[in-house]
Amino acid sequence: MIEAIIEKPIAWSYSALDQYLTCPRQYAEIRVYKNFAEPNTDQRDWGNHVHACMARALTKQIPLPTDMDQWQPVADQFRKLKGKLIVEQQWGFDRNLQESDWFSKQTWLRVIIDALWLDGNVGKVVDWKTGKRRFGSHQLELFAAAVFARYPDVQEVRTMFVWLKSFQQDTEVFVRNEVPALWNKFLPDVQKLTNSHATQTWVPKTSGLCSAHCPVTTCTFNGRRRQ
After folding, report:
1. What is the pTM for the complete model shown?
2. What is the spatial distance between Cα 109 and Cα 71, in angstroms, rounded to a whole number?
3. pLDDT per residue over 57-94, tens digit each?
4. SS3 sequence, 115-156?
5. What is the DSSP letter of 182?
6. Own/partner pairs for 202-209, CB < 8 Å, 24+ apart?
């Protein structure tokens, strides 16, 4: 059980927590005060399109469009996996890690699953990545923790990033007795996020992203503000 920190939980996701850790000020301006919005980019639109096409390829055996021909063997490979297939689902959890509606006020965690196969007591999670391969992410660990929470009979979760652009894969395997350690990867940072909400303290962090990529132009560190 996750202990209550404040009466109403602060809903978080991997992307929200990552944005907060990158820059609390940016997180607050976009997600709390809604003074700014994430820019809609061609890369984001392309990623959404790829995810939708991969979902149809897996569930309905619809061939990928011609501009994704190079990934048809990848879709065919994963379509052969055994187990019950679940694609493009939005999961919500309350602080007791019980299922919760995505928009519920009691929702504490939100997780999006690209593709999951349930085969007996084994879960297999695949997350499609359309950008450049990156390292150091704990997202696979959160996928595993979420599957263990939602499916009590699952004893092993095999997780994978599929980097479509480079045809590379990153895999990690977790077992149920690792669940406390998995949550401990996130809880200290979730506590910091919750404290920032409680005190309305959002200290900006400078990085290379400030120069041209941050939409919060009112921030002193924003490069576009100084142009």
Report:
1. 0.93
2. 32
3. 999 999 999 999 999 999 999 999 999 999 999 999 99
4. EEEEECCEEEEEEEECCCCCCCCCHHHHHHHHHHHHCCCCCE
5. H
6. 202/24, 202/25, 202/27, 202/28, 202/29, 202/32, 203/24, 203/25, 204/23, 204/24, 204/25, 204/26, 205/22, 205/23, 205/24, 205/25, 207/22, 207/23, 209/22, 209/23
